[in-house]
Amino acid sequence: MGFFTDAYDLFCISLVTKMLGRIYYHTPGSPKPGSLPPNVSAAVNGVALVGTLAGQLFFGWLGDKLGRKKVYGITLMLMCVCSIASGLSFGSNPKMVMSTLCFFRFWLGFGIGGDYPLSATIMSEYSNKKTRGGFIAAVFAMQGFGILGGGVFAIILSSIFDAKFKAPSYEVDPIGSTVPEADYVWRIILMVGAVPAILTYYWRTKMPETARYTALVAKNANQAAMDMSKVLQMEIKSEQDKVDKVVEGSNNSFGLFSKEFLRRYGKALLGTTSTWFLLDIAYYSQNLFQKDIFSAIGWIPAAKKMNAIHEVYTIARAQTLIALCSTVPGYWFTVFLIDKMGRFKIQLLGFSMMTIFMFALAFPYNHWIQPRYNIGFVVMYSLTFFFANFGPNATTFVIPAEIFPARLRSTCHGISAASGKLGAIVGAFGFLYLAQNQDPAKADAGYPAGIGVKNALIVLGVINFLGTLCTLLVPESKGKSLEEMSGENEEQQPNVGEV
pTM higher than 0.90, yes or no? Predict the structure, then answer.
């Protein structure tokens, strides 16, 4: 449920950015509905990702220092408070409203960032080696339901408001097309993200610390045995002498920035950081700006043909359809097949297919923008989401939680995830530049469209190809215990060099 909340909070902003432009940046007498200036749009979409990057590094490090459980509740409460605060953004002018919104979404992202390394590490340390990949992937798969939930809620809410406060299209009445009640819609959508987080808080407080952290890092075998007895509902015998022997015999006291760490895990960390970085450039570009791509090809009507609330409805409907038909199934294909196929094969397959579909959309782009081929474009575009999730979007989350030693596991996962969010920031801000419309006559309310989208798709295809190459640095952890992968169970070299 933490990841359900994470995805809802991160991606619901893309449902309401056009509405924010209509409400706060409309120029009286303009022939077009108001739109967010490019720099404001990039800030509103990207500031939560900046916060997420910072949170992944900070809470990943803190999770190894204080324990997974102690930090886990803090991140959730931060998400609750900042979700509500985002919907209460205030100010006497548009600039002030957007500034307070960006401030609260930064701290919302900071809390979300902590969920990445902690959720992955907790699940990996509770699981057995035969089904570990599926369990960690299932945690991450809730992101798909979060995106879907955001779209469904936006559809329901906008339908209710549109029926009650029926407004004409912008073409009919430029002023009346954005009713005052529209200001409630975007605020409610953002604030509802706090609900699943609040409902989850009780169970997080009842969750015991992972036995691997308690035994291998805190070096308390008695407490680890007691915790596991509660989880498994069976008596577990404490073996402090064996734990002491493992900890002493592993010769595993080197630091994160030491030559020994670089020798043992440097290649693996390079693999996890580079693939996650490249994946998120493509994935977040597609997610945050798919409404602009659909507008460019004509799948979503021009803004001037709808009122503000109905525009939210059409955007949410398009994104929900993509999530339902490709995003969610892709995640669960990974859940069911990752322990059979292995992480390496799924990641290689995903990157390869994303590369193929991106180029298939980009090079004949002028063909796809013709109205009779719009549905073909949407189907192809949906398949890139499917193979992102039945591929690197899931495996980049799973692998860093399995291949590093317990006392550095959360930190290394946080570094890998932060590298991904750096890619997401590049995607959120870079796509806005790459997709700039070069034909003003085709622009829809100032949003990226036309020939610029083709350039962006080509760049994303190249990025996915580079991700395919970097996957060769990633080790395979299928069927191996965490201690076997990290070399903690005996005086042996870790298996992270094997592919």
Answer: no
